[in-house]
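Now for one record.
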Amino acid sequence: MGQVISRCLMDDIFNLLENYEVVIYVVLGLAALFPLRRAYLVWQEYRAAQFGLERELAQRRITASLAMFFLLSLLIAAEFFLASFVIPARPKPVMLATPTLDLLTTPESAAAAGPTAEALAGAPAAPAAPAATAAPPAEGCIPGQLEWTLPQNGDEISGLVELRGTITVGNLGFYKYEFSQPGSDSWVTIAAGNQPLQDQPLGGVWNTADLIPGDYLLRLVVTDNQNQPFPICQITIRVVAPEED
């Protein structure tokens, strides 16, 4: 938590230095003129002084004025260095076009209730009895690093399904897995996690019994510890009605 607060504070400071760069230059530049002018005036007094005590006092005032001038000059140089080299080199956060995920929610609690058909309100309904067609190829998956192992692209599933996958990318930050219907921009998060996996359960169980039978998209959304996204691993599966006993 302390690291997160420190990072947010540092980001705020960098944003301030970047957004008000010109204003900072102007303010510091004008402020630096005052001690420089004061040093010049005191120098004139020093030259006109006839007594040793007057010269000593004038010399101290000149030293103090020049010290203030160099301090302000150092701040100007620091602003230039940060704005020109440090801030542009910082990684920029990438916002994902997906719902905001609460990482404090455990996968078990997120999946316990199970997504329902009401969560897809506004999405086009799938046909009740779709014709058997070949599933589109998987997209963005990296074999051995970022992929679904159960189900796989084109599989048919029903009832309670334990989703499995592999997530072994470097500098893993967090992942979440979601589903949607083809042609819809509405994605429903099933659960999430932040630990590497090798053909292991992703966390929780997906209850498909409440979904309308038809084709669905499953995707893994993974980011690194700098909030930079990896390719989204997306497959197409078909939900079928569970067999009645």
Summary: The beta strands are 146-150, 156-157, 160-161, 164-167, 172-180, 188-193, 197-201, 206-207, 214-224, 233-239. The mean pLDDT is 79. DSSP finds four helices and ten strands in the chain. The CA atoms of residues 204 and 229 lie 23 Å apart.
